[in-house]
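Anyone? Bumping this.
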Amino acid sequence: MHFDTMDPQKIEQRSFEIIEQELKRDLDPIQKPVIKRVIHTTADFSYADTLCFSDQAVEKALAAIQNGVSIVTDTNMGKAGISKQTLAGFGGQVHCFMADEDVAGEAKRRGVTRAAVSMEKAAGLGEDFIFAIGNAPTALIRLRELIDEGRIHPRLVIGVPVGFVNVAEAKEYLMEADVPYIVARGRKGGSNVAAAICNALLYMCV
Amino acid sequence: MHFDTMDPQKIEQRSFEIIEQELKRDLDPIQKPVIKRVIHTTADFSYADTLCFSDQAVEKALAAIQNGVSIVTDTNMGKAGISKQTLAGFGGQVHCFMADEDVAGEAKRRGVTRAAVSMEKAAGLGEDFIFAIGNAPTALIRLRELIDEGRIHPRLVIGVPVGFVNVAEAKEYLMEADVPYIVARGRKGGSNVAAAICNALLYMCV
């Protein structure tokens, strides 16, 4: 059996060429690297239809990264997938508070999700973050509330949880907030999609 | 805005009910929990068509888990997503050799991928594993070669890399080997899908 060249960089380059060919449509040039990387990560072209960007979301994210912003994510899978080395080059780091003992304890005590408490923990740190939400719709709901209350000022919210219950609704709810966002409308998304969007933004800064 | 109950267990239960309703077809009862969990992880029903199981693949995997098999994966995202606690309950652990210095060094020296060298490292450990391949087609290609040479005896190969170059072909190549497999035919898959299949199998053992 014949396999094409195994050089990872050439494979990635060829993959993006195939995506470009099959997309067959004009995308906003500044959004395009994000959309293409999500398709590269999922082999799912439906993201070209469902990814929604608030006005100048990408420009604002790039500026934040170049200013050393850190990223808060709601899954350790997301954290594992984000290029921490590239982010560190700009002075940022990736946080995931989901497994923190204080978060777990407070979530249990109040009968809310750890994802919601994680967002409160981020709000308490007195620092503006990019949020990369790939799993928990409750993280988006709590973020919207904290934004409305003026207790948190995200530089960007990546809202791409996946699922069948509350997920599509939580994304719409977040998009009504006064915050820059990149959201995958509907049910689809995931930690891998969250990490892909972060990495697309990071690679645009290099 | 109204959101349904936030209890994570109830949300998961309701999600699986929705998947069951929308699937509208009869699946093999032993394969069904695997297929449903992949759909739960991706919100992508096309996996009901593309997931391929070798004869008694699930039964063999469950027996291996119950006998304390360990899992080798080709991504740290996959490792982050697999329920290591459940696996540890049976005596197994999750390995990812991709970032190991010896693997990186040898890959560079020989001009092959770290994924391919990772498979050789697993073969050298004198232990039978479940392989969960969510990223690198070269891992599947090298596994097929090692299986053909009798140097490795996987208890199961989960073959779900995602991508546009060599990916669909590498999956077909692996399926021709004499090995139990669960493969997502075509381009789709990913670390999240690999972890979801592992977790579905683990939860069937509990």
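Late reply, but here is one note on the structure posted above: Chain A touches chain B at residues 1, 3-4, 6, 8, 11, 14-15, 18-19, 40-44, 75-77, 79-81, 112-113, 137-138, 141, 162-167, 169-170, 173, 186-192, 195 (CB under 8 Å).
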